[in-house]
Amino acid sequence: MKYEFVYTNRSEFVVGKMCQALNVSRSGYYRHTVGEESRRSIENLILLAAIKLIYKQSRGSYGSPRISVCLHEMGLSCSRPRVARLMRANSIKAKTKKRYKVTTNSNHSYPIAPDLLNQDFRADEAGRIWVSDITYIRTLEGWLYLTIILDLYNRKIVGWSMSDRLTAKRTTIPAFIQAVKRYRPLPGLIFHSDRGIQYACDDFRSILKRYKVIQSMSGKGNCYDNAVAESFIHTLKTELVYHQIYHTRLQARSSLFEWIELFYNRFRKHSALGYKSPEQYEQLNYKQAV
Question: Is 206 exposed, middle or buried (CB count within 10 Å of its CB: 0-12, 13-18, 19+)?
């Protein structure tokens, strides 16, 4: 214990004086230090190998908080600051975040639904509140328009569509129909989005009415009113799209499908879910309910 105290505080106090105060020999301390540093070096090599594996599996998107959680799941005990030091020393860092342009056409004469969420993005079970957004994906063939629908309870993407046309029949309607078929929502589902024409038009509102869904919309020009959906788009752009050059729309479709369905829903840890993936969170809470 005395040697460990000296080793831990060697950067703050003179080693010789600590050894004298604790009545231990300097030679004994240095023999202990060699063993301690050798053990720690071996531990660091094991941790670094695991960090590199997790980083690769996360497609370079994980920083030290998420990697620390993964290490604990693997049975490797390590503090987040230690993980951060190892990552810095080995030039391992999460993909940098960039700003992206929000593109919403709200200049239309269709009715606007009230904001029923008021920036409260909590849901007590799946199928209660869905949020949605549309984004533009650049390809060398032209734009590809991606529509996503996300369940606030487990942050899972329950529906999506991709199209080269920015119409409700090619964006919001197929995404919503897919979500309904895959995950039957509860009665009184709230569907929240921005005021874009694809959400406000008669065709889309009639679909919501058919399924007895309650529509909700953000305030004009307030991105925070649809923050969760826009945050997902930001993550998608930051971790995938900004690092790709899509030569064709088909190439972009394949890449986006794989990232959403195989990586994000199944693997990517979400801070709002206690660093569980959407499917992990869903399964965990299902078992607890049973």
Answer: exposed
pLDDT of residue 99: 55
37-65 exposure pattern, b = at least 16 Cβ within 10 A, e = fewer:
eeeeeeebeebbebbeebbeebeebbbbe
pLDDT tens per residue, range 84-132: 988 898 999 887 655 545 555 566 779 999 999 999 999 999 999 999 9
- Residue 179 φ/ψ, nearest 5 degrees: -60, -40
**What type of residue is 160?**
W
- Six-digit token pair at 256? 């986006």
Question: What residues are paired with 108 via a beta bridge?
Answer: none
Check the CA dihedral 275-70-88-264 and report its sign. negative
Question: In angstroms, rounded to a whole number, what is the distance separating the alpha carbons of residues 163 and 253?
Answer: 9
Angle formed by the axes of helices 172-182 and 202-210, nearest 10°:
10
**H-run or E-run covering 12:** none
